[in-house]
Design brief:
With about 230 residues, the protein is α/β, with parallel strands linked by helices. The protein has 2 domains: about 1-35, no CATH class; about 35-230, Rossmann fold (3-Layer(aba) Sandwich), CATH 3.40.50. It is built from 10 helices and 6 strands; from the N terminus they run H-H-H-E-H-H-H-E-H-H-E-H-E-E-H-E. It has helices at about 1-10, 30, 55-65, 80-90, 95-110, 110-115, 125-135, 135-150, 170-180, 205-220, and strands spanning about 65-75, 120, 160, 185, 195-200, 220-230. Helix 4 (about 80-90) packs across helix 5. It is globular. About 35% of the residues are buried.
Amino acid sequence: MLKLFENVLDYIFPKECYGCEREGEYLCSSCFDKVSFIENQPCYICNELGYENGICSKCRGESQIDKIIVATTYSENFVSRIVEQLKYNFIEDLAGILAKIIDKQIVDKDFVNDIYNVKIVPIPLHRKRYIERGFNQSEKIAKYLGEKYGGEIDEELLIRNKNTSQQAKLNRKERFENLSEAFGVRLGVEVPKKVVLVDDVLTTGVTFGEAVRVLKKSGVEEVVCVAVCHG
């Protein structure tokens, strides 16, 4: 019955490729091959070029993030349209496409050992935002990576304490204020030594930084941050 309903929806609202607008799928194989993956890793916090771990020593000291893995840029890129459609129009199927994009970067850049068999934690949504959207896009991406690389998905470790404003609408100072005390670690949950923290977009690194601060305060020793887009 569900499959029939999905077929009807596809007939009424046919899927179109976000790259070339060809009907049939949200991202065709030809356009997937055209995704502009980041080749030379910058520090994704200060944007200084040439850092294999995706973060310079200064930003690492300030944020406590150990490594950052990102697939592509947000600006001037049709991948950003996929992110926006997932987050704001709630097209849940798009999460799998974004997961495949970040996965290609992980494989091509030989980052597999950084996430293999490691506990994977999605950046959580506040309960109110979760109810509005019906799913957490970061959780969907995290589950794909967990299934491929044998990492247990931990949706309980990190919690969202307050319903913050959307970060995209704020400047850097406002982002820090908005996320102050936004995250917490759930009481009674086993804290692992290493965590892979997953989100869809990294802009200034404030969200990751605040989440990492809380995780390390609770006893986590190493955090690798993974995002699809930067910018």
